[in-house]
């Protein structure tokens, strides 16, 4: 089992590094072709930063562990709200009055409800996957139209401003190659290690996906949010969490569902999906009433997440 944890650690490192290289290469390539930085931020960067979770989910479906893919997405969304927002809020209050997140939040709730309806209708196969991808397409189209209409008030993504638009072609190719090679290798290592641990502990793939894999793939967002909080900019985490949750549900499960059927365990239908929706609804007073997510709220969020994980591990042997 020690080797399996090693595989998971190496897989996570490869996913983070390769995902970063892929984003930088894709952004540089897009800028070389003259695509506006604003559009790059809403499309290339958004997809690129979700690449690790996407590769893990696709690899899980191909390796005959589809419930691990589902657990990864649902668990990541729960961790994003309760942990990725909770821990930084303990360090520095997360302000919600500096940007209007109401429409994005409503879209996130809509994506969550659509995902739950699709899941309740049975195993997620390619027709249901197309429905999720269609929802993602509509949201992206609206975001791009809105961004173009308010171009003067939007600033380029940090990832874009750190990339030289005149990057040499050989360097772009090297970045893309390293990212495209590293991502599937890292995903395979992570999925293999997680599946072996699930078998050894007598825990289902779904539970491992909801806990170990979900937490692992959320580490980059968590590290970024904590770093921002130490610099007094924890507010940047809120927009990232909302956007990430939408992509997780519509893009990752949508793409993974095109590679094979994803069965939905009864436990997830009756418990985990509702925890995900409930965690999302906890943000209502902060989004709509512009209340800061303070230290004690951060403590409460973190404790709720810990209780959830313990409950999973206690009742997760199948």
Automatic annotation (TrEMBL):
GO cellular component terms attached to this protein's record: plasma membrane
GO molecular function: calcium channel activity; calcium, potassium:sodium antiporter activity
Regions that span the bilayer: 6-23, 35-62, 74-93, 105-123, 129-149, 170-191, 237-262, 268-288, 295-315
Keywords: Membrane, Transmembrane, Transmembrane helix
Protein name as catalogued: Sodium/calcium exchanger membrane region domain-containing protein
Location in or out of the cell: Membrane
Source species: Thioclava indica
Any one GO BP annotation for this protein: intracellular calcium ion homeostasis
Protein origin, superkingdom: Bacteria
Predominant location category: membrane
Bilayer topology annotation: Multi-pass membrane protein
Domain (Sodium/calcium exchanger membrane region) ranges: 5-144, 173-312
């Amino acid at each position: 089992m020690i080797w399996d944890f090693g595989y998971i650690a190496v897989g996570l490192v490869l996913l983070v590094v390769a995902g970063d290289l892929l984003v930088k290469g894709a952004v540089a390539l897009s800028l070389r072709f003259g695509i506006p930085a604003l559009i790059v931020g809403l499309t290339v960067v958004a997809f690129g930063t979700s690449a690790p979770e996407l590769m893990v989910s696709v690899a899980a479906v191909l390796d005959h562990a589809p419930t691990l893919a589902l657990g990864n997405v649902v668990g990541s969304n729960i961790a994003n709200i309760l942990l990725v927002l909770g821990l930084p809020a303990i360090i520095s209050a997360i302000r919600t009055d500096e940007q209007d997140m109401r429409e994005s939040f409503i879209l996130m709730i809509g994506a969550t409800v659509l995902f739950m309806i699709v899941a309740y209708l049975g195993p997620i196969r390619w027709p249901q996957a197309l429905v999720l991808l269609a929802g993602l397409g509509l949201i992206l189209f609206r975001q791009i139209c809105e961004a173009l209409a308010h171009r003067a008030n939007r600033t380029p993504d940090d990832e874009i401003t750190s990339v030289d638009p005149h990057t040499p072609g050989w360097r772009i190719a090297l970045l893309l190659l390293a990212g495209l090679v590293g991502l599937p290798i890292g995903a395979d290592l992570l999925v293999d290690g997680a599946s072996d641990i699930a078998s050894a502990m007598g825990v289902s793939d779904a539970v491992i996906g909801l806990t170990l894999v979900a937490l692992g793939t959320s580490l980059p967002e968590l590290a970024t949010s904590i770093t921002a909080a130490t610099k007094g900019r924890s507010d940047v985490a809120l927009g990232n969490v909302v956007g990430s949750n939408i992509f997780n549900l519509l893009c990752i499960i949508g793409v993974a569902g095109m590679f094979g059927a994803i069965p939905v365990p009864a436990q997830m239908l009756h418990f985990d999906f509702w925890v995900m929706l409930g965690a999302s609804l906890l943000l209502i007073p902060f989004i709509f009433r512009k209340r800061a997510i303070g230290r004690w709220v951060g403590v409460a969020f973190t404790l709720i997440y810990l209780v959830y994980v313990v409950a999973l591990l206690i009742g997760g042997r199948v």
